[in-house]
Amino acid sequence: VRPVPVVAIDGPSASGKGTVAARVAAALGWHTLDSGAVYRALAWLALEKGVALDDPAALVALAGTARLEFRDGGVAVNGVDVGDAIRTEAVSCAASRIATLPAVRDALLALQRASRRRPGLVADGRDMGSVVFPDACVKVFLTASPEVRAERRYKQLIAKGFNANIDQLRRELAARDAQDRARAVAPLQAAPDARQLDTTAMTIDEAVATVLEWVRTACAVSDAVRVG
Ligand code: CDP
Ligand code: CDP
């Protein structure tokens, strides 16, 4: 049986991973996995329950007892929709902290791999191509300059009606990227076989078209699948 094809999109914060992944998946008619939401959901729950963010055993136990659901872009914890609650800066920092713990990463592996369903999966995060789906048919390492990424996140927050300070965002993005890059396990780095895509001067449409072209040439997508 042919394995379910996976497109892995990794990269730093606000490089456009989620947006590009969603658009590529929509064009292909494939499923999506927002793996950042997996770490965010557990971090949110730990903050709610007062579980220490540096206690691997307690966090793994929490992950084992909680019902974490990721469907069609929605995120639910024990049946409660937490789609918006997990996007705060406090949860971003907490997610990045628990993501440094190897035991926590292991505990969340099966959950992420369970998203791999026919006809295909577009997964975005930090280690989709390097650890979770090493056999992905296309691995993209999406980047953009720190300045452009801070601007993108700023505009995104303002559009959603949140308050935001561009200087503070710049500092927070830099701190989280540094923590994600420096960790010993599954650090943020391009897999050796990943294709770099610098979107600093690219529109979303251009980035999506580039990835779809890579999928067309590298993944065995049937003619029945719409590409582009
Ligand atoms: O998932 P990630 O944190 O990497 O980024 P995102 O949430 O998908 O994208 C951050 C913001 O940048 C979104 O509002 C996108 O619409 C925007 N974006 C952009 O303006 N130009 C691009 N080439 C890619 C994303
Ligand atoms: O949207 P943004 O790119 O800012 O963050 P995210 O993708 O939602 O991920 C939040 C945090 O979860 C990251 O800063 C990472 O520390 C962690 N993460 C990870 O370690 N591995 C992944 N595959 C995805 C996220």
Structure in words:
The chain has 228 residues and is of the alpha/beta class. Helix content is 48%, strand content 15%. The protein has a 5-stranded parallel sheet. The chain is globular, with a radius of gyration of 17 Å. The chain starts with 5 loop residues before the first strand and ends in a 10-residue tail after the last helix. Bound molecules: cytidine-5'-diphosphate (2 copies). Keywords: Amino-acid biosynthesis, Aromatic amino acid biosynthesis, ATP-binding, Cytoplasm, Kinase, Nucleotide-binding, Transferase. Residues 7-216 form the Cytidylate kinase domain. Its main location: cytoplasm. ATP binds at residues 11-19. One of its GO terms (molecular function) is 3-phosphoshikimate 1-carboxyvinyltransferase activity.
**Percent of residues in beta strands?**
5-15%
Q: What is the oligomer described by this structure? A: single chain
The sequence of SSEs as H and E is: EHEHHEEEHHHEHEHHEH
Largest sheet: 5 strands, parallel
Shape: globular
Q: How many β-strands, per DSSP?
A: 8
Please mark out the parts with pLDDT under 50 across 5 or more consecutive residues, or reply none.
none
Mean pLDDT: 93
* Structural class determined from secondary elements: alpha/beta
Helices, by number, come to 10
The level of helicity is 40-55%
In the sheet with the most strands, the strands line up as 2-6-1-7-8
Distance between the termini: 26 Å
Enumerate the distinct ligands.
cytidine-5'-diphosphate
The Cα radius of gyration reads 17 Å
